[in-house]
cytochrome-c oxidase (Halomonas heilongjiangensis), 286 residues
Amino acid sequence: MSGGSYYVPATSKWPILGSLALGVMMIGTGMVLVHGRGTPVMATGLAAVLAVMALWFRDVVRESRRGLYDAQMDRSFRWGMGWFIFSEVMFFAAFFGALFYVRTFAIPWLDGEGAKGVAALLWPDFTASWPLMNPPDSSIAGPAATFSPWQLPLVNTLILVASSITLTVAHEGLKEGYRDTTRNWLFATLLLAITFIGIQGVEYYEAYTHYGITLQAGIYGATFFLLTGFHGLHVIIGATILAVMFVRIQRGHFSGDNHFGFEASCWYWHFVDVVWIGLFLFVYVF
């Protein structure tokens, strides 16, 4: 690495093993969706994917700790993380796009509005509204009620906003060399993340048992769980990443000018928070 040379990683088995593991997981997922069986195959693939990720990141951490990475590698990591987050933005953009399409176009068409209002001939008695409490097809039962945005959803919004603040304090503490500050505020961020996940679980229980909001409750139930479910998964992933960062802080990793692993986890967490703001506004409020 000295003299401005570029570090070339050693030959790695993880890319091919990761591809094989992902393939097994997707085959199992397809079996479950098409045939209703194949859970062991899907679970085996998922476990293999997680194992490859853990071991691959372990190797990256070891290489970083040995001082093998230079400024060019740092730029490569930053670009890689930036493009990864961009792909996540597009991932959620597709789901938000589906929500907006249904609300803005499809449902009004079924009520006779717009250029494709002829679709109203399918269900002439249908009246457009959102949330869609009464789907046009009478064989599908809509939700009995919807959540007030000013109760659990607002609490979770405040929790995630607070977690971004505590994580920012932890990050600034690391840059200034205050490791105790970093550790304590990062721990507070983890507690807030766990609280968010717990409240989301309570909300899902209430949705199924008292509100009639299920995956079978028409387009409202489908979009509700599609958006909040994938976001909840990202919160769990982000919390796991932050937990790894906490362990690394405890072990003395990172310094004020060399801590991109920690910084990347902050980028990801702030992205998750921004997505939730969009969810709160367009799934719960409007």
User: Anything to note?
Assistant: The mean pLDDT is 93.
